[in-house]
Design brief:
mainly alpha; 2 domains; two-stranded antiparallel sheet; 7 helices; 3% strand; disordered N terminus; disordered C terminus
Length: 194
């Protein structure tokens, strides 16, 4: 095995680097599989790459020469890298969030959150925190699959408080806006009349 000890600060063999990066790509792809099956815009390849990217930056940071000898510097650098990855990856997640002010709905939040969690799993892979990787991935998949099914069952059942009709009168939230709009349209029509 090629040993990176001479070139790097942290003692990582090439096989360990490959394991960390491969595990990150695999965990990200597994989370992405759920998104693909739900026909969401981000899937296995994207989330596999997100986790791989986060792990790559993390592994590269921990192998900088001189870091192992200076624990304070290592701590600050790793903290900075983690903060940078998590803040930066939020932009990809934000790109899948859609808000419709008219219908007061927001879509894509689960997909955005899965991007963020996938980056966190990638960081854990990069740091070699295997119990965190396994437990984090298992919980993420449980939330996406099992809790997703529970939400689907819950959303498909009408409740006593949910109006059966989606007309403006049943919702109650558009009546005033529509009345104002109707008055404005009526006033405009009167002004055009000779």
């Amino acid at each position: 095995m090629l040993d990176l000890r001479e070139e790097a600060g942290m003692e990582l063999e090439l096989s360990d680097v490959a394991l960390r990066l491969g595990a990150a790509a695999f965990a990200g792809a597994m989370i992405g599989l759920n998104r693909d099956l739900a026909q969401k815009p981000i899937g296995m390849r994207t989330l596999g790459l997100v986790a791989l990217g986060a792990a790559t930056v993390t592994v590269a940071t921990t192998t900088v020469p001189g870091m192992v000898e200076n624990k304070d510097a290592m701590s600050r650098v790793v903290q900075g890298v983690i903060q940078g990855i998590m803040a930066g990856i939020s932009f990809i997640g934000a790109g899948v969030i859609l808000r419709d002010a008219r219908t007061r709905t927001v879509e894509g939040l689960t997909t955005a959150a899965s991007v963020w969690v996938t980056a966190a799993v990638g960081i854990a892979c990069g740091l070699g925190a295997w119990s965190v990787v396994l437990i984090g991935t298992a919980i993420a998949l449980t939330l996406l699959v099992l809790v997703g099914r529970i939400e689907t069952l819950y959303d498909s059942k009408p409740s006593a408080n949910t109006p059966q009709s989606q007309s403006p009168d049943a919702r109650g939230d558009l009546r005033e806006d529509e009345a104002v709009g109707s008055r404005a349209a009526g006033a405009a029509a009167l002004q055009r009349t000779p």
